[in-house]
UniProtKB/TrEMBL annotation:
This is Shikimate dehydrogenase (NADP(+)). GO terms for biological process: amino acid biosynthetic process; aromatic amino acid family biosynthetic process; chorismate biosynthetic process; shikimate metabolic process. CDD domains: NAD_bind_Shikimate_DH (cd01065). It comes from Solidesulfovibrio aerotolerans. Transmembrane segments: none annotated.
Length: 281
């Protein structure tokens, strides 16, 4: 029988997860299929009831269900609990587990590049920022600051993880050697062409990690390149969170050097940026 996997969320029109995982199944000659299941918040209880009655082996979870779905599983990993959100469901010994691979997705590009920041600043206070802060704490970064346009949300996130809260207007003077953008600023659409960080505060000693990957060359990325900073592009987090999901489901590791060009082509087509030293792991 063909093994079944998929993703729930809403909307799902532009998700690349089916492309990635179906490529992986083909790559390892597995009889499996991954499909999107668009699911509105009010439909989540019924979907999870069907999930338990249907032979679905694994599930990706995206907005707006990353927190709500935790009420429908049997076990949550310590990491999932610490983040307060999950994005991956899988079965172990007849019990449904929930985990968060966004943390690994964020951390792995730093580890493979040998980047070990001492002081990091996270822009944003939403779900993506939670995974970033958790990743930085797990990596043992000595000083972590969180800043958001909403002072209350930034303070709440900082307090929860025991890190520093930085006022948005003071972000340029924080002096971090790693800057992680977990806001939508710079994303294609109304925020495109805008940077969430003052360009004059970037230096050659800064690592710029922009979670936005559409477009590839965000204003923040371009400002980082102009300043001579090390740049980690946003597709890296997406790539490695998918690699970790695939490993949880199958025990197999997707080759990142083969997967990266597939994602780049899907996102950017003929305008796909050429490989740079920072794109190669």
């Amino acid at each position: 029988m063909q093994r079944q996997f998929g993703i729930i969320g809403h909307p799902l029109g532009h998700t690349l997860s089916p492309l990635v995982h179906n490529w992986g199944f083909s790559r390892f000659d597995l009889d499996a299929r991954y499909r999107p299941w668009p699911t509105l918040p009010e439909d989540l209880p019924a979907f999870m009831a069907r999930f338990r009655e249907t032979p679905i082996e694994g599930l990706s979870v995206t907005i707006p269900h990353k927190t709500a779905v935790m009420a429908y599983v049997d076990e949550i990993t310590d990491l999932g609990r610490s983040v307060g959100a999950v994005n991956t469901l899988y079965w172990r010994d007849g019990r449904l587990w929930a985990d968060n691979t966004d943390v690994e997705g964020f951390s792995r590009p730093l580890l493979v590049r040998g980047i070990a920041p001492k002081k990091a600043l996270v822009l944003g206070a939403g779900g993506a920022a939670r995974a970033v802060v958790a990743g930085l704490v797990r990596l043992g970064v000595a000083e972590v600051g969180v800043t958001g346009r909403s002072l209350d949300k930034g303070q709440a996130l900082a307090t929860e993880f025991g890190v520093a809260a930085v006022p948005w207007d003071d972000r340029g003077g924080y002096g971090a050697d790693l800057l992680a953008n977990a806001t939508p600023i710079g994303m294609a659409g109304r925020f495109e062409g805008v940077s969430p960080f003052p360009a004059e505060a970037l230096t050659t000693g800064t690592v710029v990690y922009d979670l936005v990957y559409n477009p590839h060359d965000t204003r923040l990325v371009l400002d980082g390149v102009a300043a001579g900073a090390c740049v980690v592009p946003g597709i890296e987090m997406f790539l490695y969170q998918a690699v970790e999901q695939f490993r949880l489901w199958t025990g197999l590791t997707l080759p990142d050097d083969e997967l990266r060009p597939l994602i780049m082509e899907a996102l950017y087509g003929n305008d796909s940026p050429g490989e740079t030293e920072d794109d190669i792991t």
